[in-house]
Amino acid sequence: MSGQLFLSEIREQPDALRRLLEHRSEFTSVGRALADRAPGFVRLIGHGSSDNSAVYAVYAFGLLTGWTTLRDSISLTVYYEAKLDFAGSAVVALSQSGATPDVVEYVRRARARGALTMGITNEPGSELADAAEVVLPLMAGPERAVAATKTYVNELAAIALLSGSAAGRGDEIAEQLSRTADLMEETVDPLERQVRAVAVPFSYVGRMFVIGRGLEFATAGEIALKLTETCQVMAEPLTATAFAHGPVAALDPLFPVWTIASRDESLPAVIDAAAKVRDAGGMLVASGSAAGEIVGADYVLPVPEAPASVLSPLLSVLPGQLLSGALARAKGLDPDRPQGLSKITRAA
Amino acid sequence: MSGQLFLSEIREQPDALRRLLEHRSEFTSVGRALADRAPGFVRLIGHGSSDNSAVYAVYAFGLLTGWTTLRDSISLTVYYEAKLDFAGSAVVALSQSGATPDVVEYVRRARARGALTMGITNEPGSELADAAEVVLPLMAGPERAVAATKTYVNELAAIALLSGSAAGRGDEIAEQLSRTADLMEETVDPLERQVRAVAVPFSYVGRMFVIGRGLEFATAGEIALKLTETCQVMAEPLTATAFAHGPVAALDPLFPVWTIASRDESLPAVIDAAAKVRDAGGMLVASGSAAGEIVGADYVLPVPEAPASVLSPLLSVLPGQLLSGALARAKGLDPDRPQGLSKITRAA
Questions:
Q1: Quick count: other Cβ atoms within 10 Å of Cβ B122?
Q2: What is the signed CA dihedral for B74, B76, B79, B81, rounded to 10 degrees?
Q3: Angle subtended at Cα B322 by Cα B158 and Cα B136, rounded to the nearest 5 degrees
Q4: Pick from B70, B80, B207: which is nearest to A234 by CB?
Q5: Could you give the C-alpha distances from B62 to A118, B47, B160, B182, in angstroms and in order?
């Protein structure tokens, strides 16, 4: 059956997360060293799913450590050769393969200019591991499907462990992540049954907005990327606010909008965006731990509440991953091998 | 005729830019004060078109001053109430109306925590002007069309003047901007004729990717936003690299991709992305000063080369603005009044 790899790697996520937690002491010591260094700010880099993890890091570091964290521009340093001052900042480079050329090159330059460079990768023998001063393992095990799932979830967990440890809360976060793995395990089967009912009516959908805010904007990006790469749906991630600043004008009754609703400070903006979708007559999907608060949703894909709201994205991504697999099969596509993609993108 | 306001404001852009240049001394003195303060980094905030201007600022400040510049998260400070350290950083808030509530609230909090706050707005009597320590005028004149055009171009120019002045190059940038206004004036008429030929075959296009890199990623965002809000096309901006990391898999022969090619360090990546589009059989639009380098484009919308490559986005946006107007009319839509939008978005 097509999509076996993709689905089996989604199912493997709780175990992959537990494997990472066995290495928590490495994150604790690097997190402590990072706190001692007290960086002025943290620069995140990564492409594709790793860029969505970088979005998560902006919020995780901001909330847990209070450090300003940015998704840095790779092109400014690698292609434009801008003379940025890297001293006093820390770099976290995310790459499953550790082989993405411009990520590796960015790390080399940042390190030469005095940044504390950390690489988080699934491949400890990779060029990224060689280029970075500190290497942290992703421990996701070999990822054979082209579309990332378990490496994304482990990147989120790695960032939570690192930022939590830097804030002196590494043990608490590790314990909450362990409970998150259990919740993930309990959720996959019932959710897999639920997404089948959504996949059939979505077979003819060509475009979709995926709306999240704050921490869940990472989830919006990752769900949109899964739908785009495995199902040939053009899915665009938007913050609730960006949606109201223009794209709301493109809605019509055949245009589905997926909203990610978690019970935190971002929820009112998402509820407001969902109301705008209903007013425009668009089809509405509600997912997340607060999916029930989205009034009038056509499809509801709830997940349990995470043990800490900063960890909610680890569970919120599940409905999107599972729907991508089911929808690809409903459309006769193979989610294991999307057209035109390879596992390591060597594009500049 | 519908779209009169939108088109007349596009045509007014060279004059609006010249009005701003009359106020260059204000930018020079604020730029100098900023350089004296030597901020650790610069935080940009804005929604919609102003967020695209913020993307431009990351590159303009990076290239001209070498300062790390980020599009900051409004939600982290305003909704999550994260305790970020604002001392030592500078804030540039962009808002045409000066009335966007969460932008104003962010500025108040950043200022209270020690940031040097600057507001760039078309409304000197606005709440933003009141909240920020320093106010710089946009001088675009009243913007009556809902979709922003001249305020976007003047925001780019304001950022170029400010970052250029901070780098001690304010006079040079002002002179180059003045020549850019002349080039813009010469370009509008011939370009308006050219976009008509593209508007008709695009009448049935529902989705599109707009690809830019580096400085021109701002242009990709702004062209995509214009097409989305005025033409109900779902247009998603992507960097050349992000495109290759997933969305390329969604292409088919009916899926147009717009590439923005300028003659700078970002060009090879854009040429590479265009080749991927051709391989996938997608319809290809090439715009920008190096549009001629995109081999096999179905439609070419060239603009003149800007007097300095850092100013190229002021000209590169023109084909997208003009096509949005022409395409909206071809589809029977009124670009002056997109459905579901109002001039000031009060959404949180």
A1: 22
A2: -130
A3: 15
A4: B207
A5: 23, 21, 11, 26
Q: Which of A132, A158, A193 is nearest to A322 (CA)?
A: A193
CB contact under 8 A, A241 and B338: no
In the block, tokens 């989610």 appear at A335
Do residues A273 and A219 make contact, with C-beta atoms less than 8 angstroms apart? no
Q: How is the beta sheet containing A116-121 ordered, strand by strand?
A: A68-71, A41-45, A89-95, A116-121, A134-137
Q: Is A125 exposed, middle or buried (0-12, 13-18, 19+ CB in 10 A)?
A: exposed
Whether the per-residue pLDDT at A254 is higher than 80: the answer is no
Check whether residue A113 and residue A210 sit in a common domain. no
pTM of the entire structure?
0.95
Dist CA A339 CA A320 (whole Å): 20
Is the Cβ of B127 closer than 8 Å to some Cβ of chain A? no
Alpha helix ranges (H) inside chain A: 4-11, 13-21, 24-37, 49-64, 74-78, 101-112, 127-131, 150-166, 170-199, 215-231, 240-244, 267-279, 312-316, 318-330
- B300 inside domain: yes
Domain of A304, in residue numbers: 186-330
Q: Tally Cβ neighbours within 10 Å of residue B204.
A: 9
Chain A contacts of B265, Cβ < 8 Å?
Answer: 75, 79-81
Are A181 and A14 in contact by the 8 Å Cβ rule? The answer is: yes
A306: domain CATH number is: 3.40.50.10490
> How far is Cα A135 from Cα A30, in angstroms, rounded to an integer?
9
Report the alpha-carbon distance of residue B245 to residue A166 in Å, rounded. Answer: 31
Integer Cα distance of A316 and A314 in angstroms: 6
Lowest mean pLDDT among A124-133, A155-164, B54-63, B229-238: B229-238
Chain A segment 10-49 residues within 8 A of B by beta carbon are: 40-41, 43, 47-48
Residue B346 counted as domain residue: no
- At B177, which amino acid appears? L
A115 and A12 housed in the same domain: yes
- Interface ipTM above 0.85: yes
**B111-154 residue pLDDT tens:** 999 999 999 999 999 999 999 999 999 999 999 998 999 999 99
Residue B222 included in any domain: yes
Given CA atoms B334, B336, B337, B338 in this order, what sign does their dihedral have?
Answer: positive
Which chain B residues are closer than 8 Å to A73 by Cβ? Answer: 58-59, 62, 214
